[in-house]
Design a protein that fits this description.
alpha/beta; 7 strands; 17% strand; globular
Length: 191
Amino acid sequence: MREEPSAAAVAALTNFMFLPDKAIRADCTFVLGMTLFHRPVARAVELHDQNLAGRIIFSGGYNPRLQAQEADEMRALWCQLGRPEAVVQVERESTNTRENMEGIKSLLERQGLMTEIHSVNLVAISYHMRRALETFRDVFGDAWTVGTASYPSQYCSPHGWAQNARGRELVLSEFVKIRQHLPHRLPKMHC
């Protein structure tokens, strides 16, 4: 039988995994794809409409559930919503968070834009934002100003994820991925 995590462990993990929503006026916004791609697009639209987004890069490769590239689906929806296509670029090869960031970096380098961008908003689902941020820092370095613009998960609210099996599965899976791929980005936690 699995032992339930202590209240202190849940609090420490919640504080680490769920970042406050702190969008900034950015030069560029990186939007990470998912099957329910309308959700990150809606968040990107909000940032654009608030004049916070700057250039938008939709990132996501082939998704078998969509039978399409996530980035292309996001761009199409963006345009259907009447937002300007001129501010949008796509990175359509990535299949995971590291590939998202490496693909975006490669795109910016090919276009000679790395020296023009100093601030970025990251758009991802709330329980994934920590891994997105730490992967961004690992790929791009710590010199950039970064804002976070998450959208909620139906299973993983910051205050209720530990009360349901799906929420625990998603948050703990994200933590394990950070521990495996970004161990140098983990804080010392005392629970």
